[in-house]
Amino acid sequence: MARRRGSKGPSPDLSRTLTDCTRRGDAAAAMAAFDDAVSDPDAPTRLAAHQYNQLLHLLATADRSSFPSPAAAAHRVFDHMLQAGAPPSEATITSLARVTAAPDADNPASAADEAFQLVATMKEKHGLAPRLRSYSPVLAAFRRAGDASKAYAVEAHMAASGVSPEEPELAALLDVSSTAGDADKVYEYMHKLRQTVDCVSEETAQVLEGWFRSDKAAMASKAEWDAAQVKDAIVLNGGGCHQLGWLGTGPWMVQRVRAGADGQCGACKCRLACVDIDMEETQRFADSVAALALERETKANFSQFQEWLEENKEYEAIVDGANIALYQQNFAEGGFSLTQLDAVITELRGRYHGKWPLVILHNKRIAKLMENSSNRHLIETWRANGALYTTPSGSNDDWYWLYAAIKLNCLLVTNDEMRDHIFELLGSSFFPKWKQHHRVKYTFNKGKAVLVMPPPYSSEIQESEVGSWHVPMEEKSGDERVRIWLCIGRTGICKVPDKVPTTNGVVQEVPPNEASNGVQQSLQEDKAESITGKRKDRE
Prior knowledge:
The chain is of the alpha/beta class.
């Protein structure tokens, strides 16, 4: 827009004042400087867009005790911005929505509606795409107002804009659903929370505790269900949930407990699951690896491997042969150690009742190794037992062992961190979780292979086959031994733990009057199995 006649450009003095006020959090002084700058009717100062944003951000974070009416001031700044032809940004609208939807608004419900309107029309009016931070204050305002239907409308608009809620937004949706007594919505958001975060904050934990201790939660029930269907659903979902609704009847008991090193809950004594990616995700992951491999490898060679693998599926483990044989061989007499590779194979066979793993090695390695008679004997033994696949000339064996481990859904023995360009190509959210639960690292002690197996359980939200829940809380130290879990189950399932954990010296215990008799069977303390999803039972 053309500069108005008689107007002055951005003032250096104003810039310094706004920067200083922002540093001090002094909204009143900033607004006084703004009013002085724009009050001259003959030659008003023209503000830059970023100065308007500075003011709006300052007003959105203003201390209400020193500046009691920031919303009115923010709208005045925004109106001036539009009149001056300064282009608003997403940050502009977000700050305005934030100050409009503030907790101390004169009419909270009306303010929440106005803030939502600002965000919802951002694209249409200004060509701007809202971000998660644009929606958060609006969702928080509807949460405070207890208006569940409008909170759901915000979530729907987020989805239409391609914005996914994170833990604070999901906690708000859980809370407003809990207040409304909408058990189906609470269940829906429990699973969205499970898919979004591994561990929850203290605030989210309190929201969950509030719901499960409510009468509405006790009424959300199912007295009978198909146990086989539930188990199948858990396997299909990777071991961590069934998503078939609230199981069981009666009140819930909520306890803060710790899990043992083997994953046994300190309250109900059930074993936490080792949660994998689900079957559909596994298939998509395998397909994406195969597609990339077929682009980069000789197509006929990799296709032949895929066909061979379809006919040879009964492996418990895939072995990255080169990674093991070259482990710590960077010394003068070091080389390609088949002895190390054989030690790993021996250890795996000992674990799986003599069953052979599948070793992937490049054919150039094999050709050279076969020149030595002792090596030849080992290699011929592996071949005779179907334990060796040699990749062809010009191939990268990484594609072969990775695809095999994913496709057969089994363990992968390698110390490779899988961080190089090949794995960056995957760009998959599945990969870190898959690696955590399938990769077996190794070392050697006096020539014997020592395998470091995947963790026995997953620190993530879990829903069991009897309808109980286990929710891990954030643990800043990263020490799983001290992590607090919410054990949530019908009162017939849960037991009061021998030792009740404390947080900041406060005992986290459910008062006795909140417990009553329940109906579901308890998982036995000596139950050795855990639900491991798609991964086969392993010793």
